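>> Question from a student workshop board

For tomorrow's exercise we were told to take the sequence and the ligand below, predict the bound structure, and bring the output to class. My setup keeps failing. Could a helper post the expected result so I can at least see what it should look like? The ligand is calcium ion.
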Amino acid sequence: MICGEILIGERYLQYSIAEPLRIKAGQVSNATAIGRLEILYNGVWGTICDDSWDLTDAEVACRQLGYDHALKALQGKHVDDGTGQIWLDDVGCYGHENSLSSCAHNGWGTHNCAHCEDAGVECSKTGN
Ligand SMILES: [Ca+2]
Ligand SMILES: [Ca+2]
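>> Workshop helper replied:
Here is what the output should look like for this input. Compare the format with yours to find the bug.
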């Protein structure tokens, strides 16, 4: 999410704020987290489509959630269906991003998905 621009010298620097993530319909402890992934945008929690959802994307999400590793990128058939807004589709992270919202995607709310395709994560505090 591009939130604005700052003029520094003769260059405009774009800055951004990470949209928060949460895990729903799963199990969360200090050591592990597993469940449906949701992201907050414009004050509304929404889900992420499992199209092209992979371990690299899950790594970024798990790190943003405060875990060290992603063990699995869960596809919709392994995740309880969410409701309401579907925010992200075709997420494409490189893996170095600090937040899921800075990864490539189709645009907020632009998708060809249903809630049976809601993506999830399995995150861990310790190794693989
Ligand atoms: Ca991907
Ligand atoms: Ca798609």
